């Protein structure tokens, strides 16, 4: 049996629905159910001249037969109002969260092995009167998870590259104060634990970046390495973790250094993700670590300017689904 992955179709005016249509047909790694408005998906398929046969989720469960080449299983969640590609509708803000709620409930109950998410538009959700900072924060709140870790990943010619972040969307001036011993300790524990339980790596090797140029150069270029990062690494090594660093970030992403680790922990957003996106652009994915469920996502936005044109690249969504399936196989028995 293949793991059943719920794929949320995201902002209806964006490229999410049409990317989901590209998932039609049997997949090598997983069974897929797309969560979204059935009529919207049918309209977008017609607009793009895609030959996709939409199958009701409940009916597909009852029959449980292999999918036809152009079939796509859809769990219907109705829009609040009709949606046109490229044109945001504030009234559909709650619909986007209903997709997440349905996927999350299915993951928590065991109905779904994991969820993969197409992009949402934060602005339109907030304009609908719903405070929303992102998928990651929303899922953390809904599951009562005090700390989650953002990790982006992708395949490169030299193997998989995984980059987790100690801080995420912060102004650069606020980063040093946010890197506390407590945050760094909890982040590394989550990264180590999920590499074991969701990736099947028995003893993860984690490369940890310094914050300052040349990792502080002995304190001459900053003392965060001496006062925070190095003591945390020493404590966690004593507990049995395989950690190296703090590494100078300008050389940490060279092949000889990356070959020594299974994942990287960067101190801030651009320090880690510039290298990751250069190496995996168009096929990288986002993984939320620390949740009690498996959640992966594309690493791009709603691209309203591309919606309805057929030019959006589905590569990141395909990779997100495949990664969710791999993680599901490592973390739980297949149903």
CATH class of the largest domain: Alpha Beta
The CATH fourth-level homologous superfamily of the largest domain: Isopropylmalate Dehydrogenase
Q: Percentage of helical residues? A: 25-40%
Shape: globular
Q: What is the total domain count? A: 2
From the 3D structure, determine the CATH topology of the largest domain: Isopropylmalate Dehydrogenase
What would you report as the Rg, rounded to the nearest angstrom?
21 Å
Describe this structure in words.
The protein is an alpha/beta fold and 335 residues long. It has two domains: 4-145 and 291-331, Isopropylmalate Dehydrogenase (3-Layer(aba) Sandwich), CATH 3.40.718; 149-278, Isopropylmalate Dehydrogenase. 38% of the residues lie in helices and 19% in strands. It is built from 13 helices and twelve strands. The chain has helices at residues 16-21, 38-47, 57-63, 93-109, 122-127, 135-143, 175-178, 181-197, 224-238, 249-252, 255-258, 269-280, 315-331, and strands at 4-8, 31-36, 53-56, 71-76, 114-117, 149-156, 159-165, 205-209, 242-247, 263-266, 285-289, 295-298. Strands 3-4-2-1-5-12-11-6-7-10-8-9 form a twelve-stranded mixed sheet, sandwiched between helices. Helix 9 links the parallel strand 8 (205-209) and strand 9. The chain is globular and about 60 Å long. The N and C termini lie close together (7 Å). The mean pLDDT is 93.
């Amino acid at each position: 049996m293949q793991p059943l992955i719920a794929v949320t179709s995201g902002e209806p005016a964006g490229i999410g629905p049409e990317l989901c249509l590209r998932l039609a047909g049997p997949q090598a790694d997983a069974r897929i159910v797309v969560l979204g408005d059935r009529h919207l998906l049918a309209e977008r398929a017609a607009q793009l001249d895609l030959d996709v046969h939409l199958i009701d989720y409940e009916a597909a469960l009852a029959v449980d037969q292999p999918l036809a080449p152009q079939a796509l299983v859809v769990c219907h969640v109705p829009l609040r109002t009709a949606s046109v590609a490229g044109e945001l509708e504030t009234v559909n803000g709650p619909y986007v969260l209903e997709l997440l709620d349905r996927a999350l409930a299915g993951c928590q109950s065991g109905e779904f092995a994991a969820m993969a998410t197409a992009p949402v538009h934060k602005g339109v959700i907030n304009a609908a009167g719903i405070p929303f900072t992102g998928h990651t924060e929303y899922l953390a709140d809904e599951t009562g998870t005090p700390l989650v870790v953002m990790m982006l990943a992708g395949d490169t010619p030299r193997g998989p590259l995984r980059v987790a972040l100690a801080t995420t969307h912060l102004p650069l001036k606020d980063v040093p104060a946010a890197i506390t011993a407590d945050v760094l300790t909890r982040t590394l524990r989550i990264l180590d634990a999920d590499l074991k339980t969701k990736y099947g790596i028995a003893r993860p090797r984690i490369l940890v970046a310094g914050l300052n140029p040349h990792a502080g150069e002995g304190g001459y270029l900053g003392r965060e390495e001496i006062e925070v990062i190095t003591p945390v690494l020493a404590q966690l090594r004593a507990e049995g973790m395989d950690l190296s660093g703090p590494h100078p970030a300008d050389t940490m992403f060279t092949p000889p250094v990356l070959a020594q680790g299974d994942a990287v922990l960067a101190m801030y957003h651009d320090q880690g993700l510039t290298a990751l996106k250069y190496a995996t652009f168009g096929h990288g994915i986002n993984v939320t670590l620390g949740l009690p469920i498996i959640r992966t996502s594309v690493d791009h936005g709603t691209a309203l300017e591309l919606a309805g044109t057929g030019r959006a690249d589905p590569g990141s969504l395909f990779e997100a689904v495949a990664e969710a399936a791999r993680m599901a196989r490592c973390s739980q028995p297949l149903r």
